[in-house]
Design a protein that fits this description.
Layout: E1 33-37, E2 44-51, E3 54-63, E4 66-71, E5 75-76, H1 77-89
Antiparallel strand pairs: 1-2, 2-3, 3-4, 3-5
Length: 93
């Protein structure tokens, strides 16, 4: 049986893409909920989180010996969704 991916994959990073700043997870929004995510079949998975008018993007690097989680800055929901769209299209990493 052929398995298909149901979540999006990132587009190729464009030459002039914006480099996002990644930081260790912050407990301030630990109760935020994921509202979108990329496919888990890749070594790097991204999730869009939001709570209380703010949002951020979580990046999980999956390795054979574990994983590493980093998060973006907190933005307004509008700014977070704009950054999420840029990430998916290859305009940000």
């Amino acid at each position: 049986m052929l398995e298909t991916c149901v979540s999006p994959h990132l587009g190729m990073a464009q030459r002039d893409h914006v480099q996002l700043d990644w930081h260790p997870p912050d407990r301030v929004l630990e109760r935020a909920r994921p509202v979108a995510w990329t496919c888990g079949c890749r070594a790097t998975v991204y999730e869009l989180f939001q709570r209380g008018g703010q949002g951020f993007i979580r990046r999980t690097l999956q390795h054979d010996d574990g994983h590493r989680v980093d998060e973006s800055h907190r933005w307004s929901i509008t700014e977070t969704r704009t950054t999420w769209t840029a990430l998916l299209s290859g305009k940000a990493r």
